[in-house]
Amino acid sequence: MMDRPRSAPGASSALGKLAGFVIAVVVLAGIYVGYQALQVLFPPNTYETALLATVADTVDADGVLLFDEVYVPGGGTLGYLAADGERVSAGAAVAENYSSPEQAGLRQQLTSLNDQIELLQRSQNTTATQLDSLKKERASALYDMMDALDGSAYDETAQGEENYILAQNKLWVITGEVSDFSAQIASLTEQSAQVQAQLGEPTQITAPQTGYFIRSSASGRLNAGADDILALNTTDLQAYLNSDPELPLDGCAGKIVSGFAWRYVGLCSAKEGEKLLGDNGKPLTRSVKIKFPGQMETPLKASVSEVAIDEATGLARFVITCEIINGDVLRLNRAGAQIIVDETTGLRVPIDAIHYLKEDGTESETQGENYIPGVYVKYGNLARFCKIDPVDNDHPLVTDGEYRIVMPSSSDKTKTVSEVRLYDEIIVSGQNLYDGKLL
């Protein structure tokens, strides 16, 4: 009788392990497929945090700035004694003419020395009670410098640096690290006198009238007068803007802008120009804001003086009046502007998360006139229905992409019925949501 073939030692064990592995893979695959099916049939809730946002209704335009300005004659090698945007009196020295480049260097050296002397003199005027406030001032100046550098506002960086050094010097005096700065002041004063002697008395250029001074190197001028520009209609203004109307301030040390008001004469699309009109078809009576992207980002309060819609060209011509002046604005002549007509600040709520309840508490598939709008918010492990304001004259529809801006909850229910609070977890999607549902 022949012997039955025998398997190699350990083969049955290996086959058993392989079979077990295959079974485990099949089971896991079944679990995964089942999980995916459940995800399709019963998708999990998704949430989004309610955060504050500001949405601006704006008008983009191209135009020119009109100032009441006179030019300050001067040429050659100039040195400036007044900063851009500085208000000067009639007859005040704003610049000086140098006979050589060496004189210009001496003036810069003298200015630096005198600034250091003034800073040290101010540093000695302090008391021990200012310790905490000076520490805050030093930190604030450091943050201001960092912000200015980040925004490429180098003029503000210099001011922040001065504030930081002043606070640090005063701290040294208070803590006893420095008794006073008399020795340094005496040394700098001696150096200043020596530089002044070398500089001599350069010919000074004075302001012809009181106003704000702007250097010729920082600005230019328009090739037409303000009255002529204001008289242009929509078509002529468009042609003027396309003609490259800005000229350099050749032969001038700078210009002086008098008064506190200036005007912006601009063009925008007819559709956007309608935003500058009120319900009565006349220019808005409420304030707007104007800024110049890429050149001056800080919005300034202004008012709308004129608006003319030209249906034939599809353009609108308008005039904005502003009574706020600074060095950044005074440097501009022709510039693109953005007029902020209205701003709305509220909570960003996903539009997909908004539900409408009927009077009986059941949910409607579409928006109805008397249905209550709201969102479901996660409170602990419960879903709570929180009302938001219906769209009406007091609460106009404001959207930001896929979000709607709603008012946050307030104790003053005459202003809002909204129950949504800052940082609430809004349920964007969920199955069979209802007030009080266990999540």
Query: What's the number of extended β-strand segments?
Result: 24
Adjacency order of strands in the biggest sheet: 2-12-15-14-13-16
Structural class: alpha+beta
Percentage of helical residues?
25-40%
Number of helical segments with 4 or more residues:
9
Please report which band the strand proportion falls in: under 5%, 5-15%, 15-25%, 25-35%, 35-45% or over 45%: 25-35%
Shape: extended
Mean pLDDT: 85
From the alpha carbons, calculate the radius of gyration and give it in angstroms: 35 Å
Q: Low-confidence runs (pLDDT<50, min 5 residues)?
A: 37-42
Q: Determine the N-to-C terminus distance.
A: 73 Å
Could you describe the largest sheet, including whether it forms a barrel? 6 strands, antiparallel, barrel
Write the layout of secondary structure elements.
Elements: H1 11-41, E1 46-49, E2 51-66, E3 69-73, E4 77-80, E5 86-88, E6 93-98, H2 101-123, H3 131-150, H4 154-175, H5 182-199, E7 203-206, E8 211-215, E9 220-222, H6 226-230, H7 234-241, E10 246-248, E11 252-257, E12 262-269, H8 270-273, E13 288-292, E14 296-310, E15 315-322, H9 327-330, E16 334-350, E17 354-357, E18 363-364, E19 372-379, E20 382-387, E21 399-400, E22 403-406, E23 425-429, E24 437-438
Antiparallel strand pairs: 1-23, 2-12, 2-16, 3-11, 4-6, 5-8, 6-7, 8-11, 9-10, 12-15, 13-14, 13-16, 14-15, 16-22, 17-18, 17-19, 19-20, 20-24, 21-22
Helix pairs in contact: 2-4, 2-5, 3-4
Protein name: HlyD family secretion protein
Transmembrane segments: 12-35
Keywords: Membrane, Transmembrane, Transmembrane helix
Notes on the structure:
This protein has 439 residues and is of the alpha+beta class. Among the domains are: 100-201, no CATH class; 347-438, no CATH class. Helices cover 31% and strands 33% of the residues. The chain is built from 9 helices and 24 strands. The protein has helices spanning 11-41, 101-123, 131-150, 154-175, 182-199, 226-230, 234-241, 270-273, 327-330; strands at residues 46-49, 51-66, 69-73, 77-80, 86-88, 93-98, 203-206, 211-215, 220-222, 246-248, 252-257, 262-269, 288-292, 296-310, 315-322, 334-350, 354-357, 363-364, 372-379, 382-387, 399-400, 403-406, 425-429, 437-438. The protein has a 6-stranded antiparallel β-barrel with strand order 2-12-15-14-13-16. It has a 5-stranded antiparallel sheet with strand order 18-17-19-20-24, with no helix packed on it. The protein has a 4-stranded antiparallel sheet with strand order 3-11-8-5, with no helix packed on it. The radius of gyration is 35 Å and the shape is extended. The termini are far apart. The model is unreliable at 37-42 (pLDDT under 50).
